[in-house]
Amino acid sequence: MRQFSACIEWLFARDGDAFADRIRLAHEAGLDAVEFWHWTNKDLNAITAAVAETGIAVSGLVAEPMIALTNPANKEAWLKGLRESVTVAQRFGASVLIAQAGDDLPEFSRAEQREAIVSALSAGADVLKGSGVRLGLEPLNTTIDHVGYYLSSTVEGLDIVDEVGRPEIGIVYDLYHSAVMGENTREVVGDRIDRIVHLHVADHPGRNDPGTGHIDLAERLDWLYAQGYRGRVGLEYKPTTQDPAAVRAVVKSLGG
Predict the structure, then answer these.
(1) In the CATH scheme, what architecture does the domain 4-254 have?
(2) What per-residue confidence (pLDDT) applies to 66?
(3) Is 76 marked active-site?
(4) pLDDT, average across residues 225-238
(5) What is the rounded average pLDDT for all residues in the chain?
(6) Kind of pairing, strands 96-99 and 134-137?
(7) Does residue 64 carry a catalytic annotation?
(8) 35, 64, 183, 236: which one is catalytic?
(9) Contact 256, 2 (CB under 8 A)
(10) pLDDT tens for each residue of 65-118
(11) What residues form the catalytic site here (predicted)?
(12) What pTM was computed for the model?
């Protein structure tokens, strides 16, 4: 059975509730894992307590600081933050850290920016070595949600990972962003399934619950699992309702 992870930045969010309460709500809804974005703005002790209370897993979080890897001047600050992020990930038993490439910067050529990304990730692989944590570089769509972002192509993301050539570094493959960019999953992933460290799903238009739009998410997931993907699927969508039954229905519809 496929395993899913609720992105509690959006799912189980209720006005006035503490962030850690979303972990309890996810557990009550039958989820066995959660993920979130920034860790520096959260009560880590409260999250630790909720995780211990529920036994739920933390699948991943963002590697901070979220600064542009496309700018070579940011490398050392990013590596310092990565070391701290690895410690937090290990605290929660999370196996994935998520990184973003940053904006396409006009003061550098595309080649220079790509070289900066590869350099940062290569050094980051040394930080990650032996930690039990992998880093996923995430391509994002540049037509709706992330105009001006450097990395909109899954193929280029995978090419960057191959250029780094380290098992600690892969990509987060977000089926929503990929579909918005008009990509065909089979064509862009090809035989490089082992470079995917984590998946994200949402439907389009709206970036809402799977099943509310026109992306063939179940079919794409079927193919990815048939190729050997065995990680979790992150439910990173803007829910149209906070009813736990709706989340359970999404999980069922996607093969959970």
Answers:
(1) Alpha-Beta Barrel (3.20)
(2) 98
(3) no
(4) 98
(5) 98
(6) parallel
(7) no
(8) 236
(9) yes
(10) 999 999 999 999 999 999 999 999 999 999 999 999 999 999 999 999 999 999
(11) 138, 236
(12) 0.98
- Pairing verdict, β 33-35 and 96-99: unpaired
Residue 146 makes CB contacts below 8 A (sequence gap 6+) with 140, 152
Write down the catalytic residue from 35, 64, 138, 183: 138
Reply yes or no: is the peptide bond before residue 205 cis, omega within 30 of 0: yes
DSSP calls for the chain: ---EEEETTTTT--TT--TTHHHHHHHHTT--EEE-S-STTS-HHHHHHHHHHH--EEEEEE-S----TTSGGGHHHHHHHHHHHHHHHHHHT--EEEE---B--TTS-HHHHHHHHHHHHHHHHHHHTTTT-EEEE----TTTT-TTBS---HHHHHHHHHHHT-TTEEEEEEHHHHHHTT--HHHHHTT-GGGEEEEEE--TTTS-STTSSS--HHHHHHHHHHTT--S-EEE----S---HHHHHHHHHHTT-
